[in-house]
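Researcher: Here's my situation. A collaborator sent me these components and asked whether they could plausibly form a single complex. I don't have experimental data yet, so a predicted model of the whole assembly would be a useful starting point for our discussion.
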Amino acid sequence: MKFVKNFFEKTEPLVQKGAKYHWLFSVHEGFFTLFFVSKDTSKSGTHIHDFIDLKRTMGMVVLALVPVILFGMYNVGFQHFKAIGELQSTGFFALFFYGLLKVLPVIAVSYIVGLGIEFVFAQKRGHGIHEGFLVSGILIPMVMPIETPLWMIGVATAFAVIIGKEVFGGTGMNIWNPALIARAFLFFAYPAQMSGNSVWVALSGSDKVVDAFTGATPMAEAAAGNTNFSIADAFFGFIPGSIGETSTLAILIGAVVLIITGIGSWKIMVSTVAGGAVMGIILNIFAVNAYMELPFWQHLIIGGFAFGAVFMATDPVSGAQTETGKWIYGFLIGLLAILIRVINPAYPEGMMLAILLMNTFVPLIDYYVVQSNIKKRLKRVKTSA
Amino acid sequence: MSDPLFSKKHLKLLTDPLNSSNPITVQVLGICSALAVTAQLKPAVVMALSVMAVLAFANVIISLLRNTIPNRIRIIVQLVVIAALVILVDQVLKAYVYDVSKQLSVFVGLIITNCILMGRLEAFALGNRPWPSFLDGIGNGAGYSVILIIVGFFRELFGSGTLWGFRIIPESWYITHGGFYANNGMMILPPMALIVIGIIIWVQRMRNRKLIEE
């Protein structure tokens, strides 16, 4: 660590105000705090700080995402070789490396574009580089189909960072989850590359697919009335889908990490699942077609429901802040996600829209929770006086 | 007549609405039509010209009548004048550019409810002579046009790959023809027009810092 410290100390005078590389100041600071505890102390206001700062929080979320990322890479290879009928003759590592080579460029594009824009804004506005994009940058690839062209991912990332975040004042000020903004942008701008049956499995033009191959996700199959997909495959994640959303098991591991470390709110996760289950049961009762008859718990393991509930809805910035608010917020997300998914045939997945919609309502929910608390306490004062 | 026809004061009436008192980006009037008709450049330009014509002549007529209109019914009088002019414009469009007129459909009629018109009549024409009122109408119409044309330019270019109906982005670039490119479907939808206008406002205020409210 000694030489790292020396490097930062040596370069520090070069990035001070008026020095040659002054425009790199926040970059220098950003990387310094990545390795060491910040030397700066508070000059006003609060002087006692939690030891979990933004950087540690974000690092922990990325850590919780590792099982999802690794499985996502493996599944990309798995789906590819399954589609061309060479699954038996290909080893585990061949599958994984195929997926790795497919997924890495997507992650790289997301980080380069997003961090590039963050750096530019940090220099222009003269504030430090915020770590918010560390998580968004990995969440964006995780919610994309593998066949989305890289330039589209770049455009969507730029849109999400500029319109979804920087116009509101940067990290911590955004109303909506930036990763979902990126996905929503692509979903409405380039529907042909974001939905349908040909985007979920990586295939190059020369590949010959086996006869039974359709490329459809279990959700698309279910929407078409064919609801007998394999429950085990859907739970473990051996199904076509966005890179990170397929394996409910890997997502559950991430959820456990988030809950144990206290970074993700278990209230939001539980209430989202509850909301989804309630809507599923309601639809079961009033079922008129095969998709509505799908047992309610099966909704929780297909599509992006689990991923959204664990990693998207729990975003501390765009999610509810009050404890009661978290229950309401999560429950409505689950409810709406399943409702949109089943009732509206134009939107194959409701999770993205449900979370974005509830993000919009978060300030309202929080406001009324706070107001009702104030009223309750005022009443108590009056009765005791 | 105290001022000559094109005095500095009169020219300011023409140039101010283009930047520092732009009806769309600064006064935030007439947004609805700016979102609705700008998916392509051609209807945007036709719409801009129609609004400019209606605004200039309504300003002149109201300015001529300003001393005879009873204060209590002035809104009704203004509406009658605007409605008559809009019907005239609508008939002209139908006669000479029928296809664009069909594309614009109700939005020509809805010029009547465009806030820029009532705003200028109330704020300017009721208190000024006909000639400055005419210039004010042309100026504000031009300010409205500039924004419509900018928005229409970007929306048509990225949403359809064409400009004024002519193909700009070659067919061979498209994924459907073996290329890599695809049209941005968002650009066709009104929400993206709102975002484009938002970005124009952002850029304008970065260049003209006086406009930033504290």
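Model: Some features of this prediction you could bring to your collaborator: The two ends of chain B are 40 Å apart (CA to CA). Chain B touches chain A through eleven residues (CB under 8 Å).
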